[in-house]
Write a structure and sequence with these properties.
single chain; alpha+beta; Glutaredoxin; two-stranded antiparallel sheet; about 10% strand; globular; Thioredoxin; transmembrane helix; Thioredoxin-like_fold
């Protein structure tokens, strides 16, 4: 029997969709906040164990003694001096002209990322922030193997695309390594993302989505295949040779100098998003973005 109930209007359907999307975001935020405590506990336990055992690993800026890469190397055509690539639309990036990182820069970064380096305390402050930027400037520190990064990207990648499409914000991704990996996967996957950004910026967000939708450690060949599926073909050499690894380690050193404590770390016009106290990310970010664009 056909229903006599009136069909919902377009505005009612949109409102229902907004309510559903907000509920999903709130659930993701709650889950992330709950896990955050256990992550912090795990880090503390891990650090205590490392100190007691004289271990060679540490969580933030981790580098294995046998983690070798070139002493110098190229900068992606869209890479800035802070280890970031800046999207100004879902398919385009701000060109920087590339360049080279020198042996001196890489050596200085290796000092910062050495397990014996003592980090300075202080407030996180990313280099390159423009607090008066219009459109708003979003900076995201991300590790391809970080589970909270996957949760965040899976929940909000679509929102980032909307802000980019509407020209409300630029989005800068700074790929770093904070999770331990016997295969140096975070650094290798970060290099793969730089390869994609350099080759075809339009493939960058699809590559990010693929990495986080099915987060796992991949071989270089698998990363190249994923890049090809995203729209950036013929990157086998760039990925397997670690072409942008020197650039990546310089960015890693910059992260440590800027006192960034972990991933994901998100800043809007220089203001840090604290998932423990700032509530719903989209509402928080929209307030910052609207204020920046007035």
């Amino acid at each position: 029997m056909a229903s006599n109930a009136p069909r919902a209007t377009k505005s009612e359907r949109l409102e229902a969709a907004r309510i559903e999307a907000r509920a999903k975001r709130e659930a993701a935020d709650k889950k992330r906040r709950q896990r955050s405590l256990w992550t912090k506990i795990g880090i503390i336990v891990g650090i205590v164990a490392l100190v007691a055992g004289g271990g060679l690993w540490y969580y933030f800026g981790a580098v294995k003694p046998n983690n070798t890469f070139a002493d110098s190397g190229p900068i992606p055509a869209v890479g800035n001096q802070y280890g970031g690539v800046v999207l100004d639309s879902p398919t385009t990036m701000v060109s920087t002209g590339g360049g080279e990182v020198t042996k001196e820069q890489v050596d200085a970064a290796k000092v910062l990322t050495d397990p014996n380096y003592k980090r300075e305390a202080g407030e996180a402050a990313p280099a390159g922030v423009d607090k008066s930027a219009k459109p708003a400037q979003i900076i995201v520190y991300v590790d391809p193997l970080c589970p909270h990064c996957a949760e965040f990207e899976n929940a909000y990648a679509g929102q980032f695309e909307s802000w980019l499409s509407e020209k409300k914000a630029t989005v800068e991704y700074r790929m770093v390594s904070v999770i331990r990996s016997a295969t140096n996967y975070p650094a290798r996957a970060g290099n793969a993302l730089y390869c994609v950004a350099d080759k075809n910026p339009a493939a960058f967000l699809p590559m990010m989505k693929s990495l986080f939708a099915d987060q796992k450690e991949r071989s270089n060949a698998e990363l190249a295949q994923l890049a090809s599926q995203a729209g950036a073909a013929d990157l086998n050499s760039c990925i397997s040779n670690g072409t942008f690894r020197p650039y990546g380690v310089v960015g890693q050193g910059q992260m440590i100098k800027d006192k960034i404590g972990g991933t994901p770390s998100i800043f809007v016009n220089g203001t840090y998003y604290n998932g423990e106290t700032d509530g719903d990310f989209v509402e928080w970010a929209n307030a910052k973005i609207d204020a920046a664009n007035k």
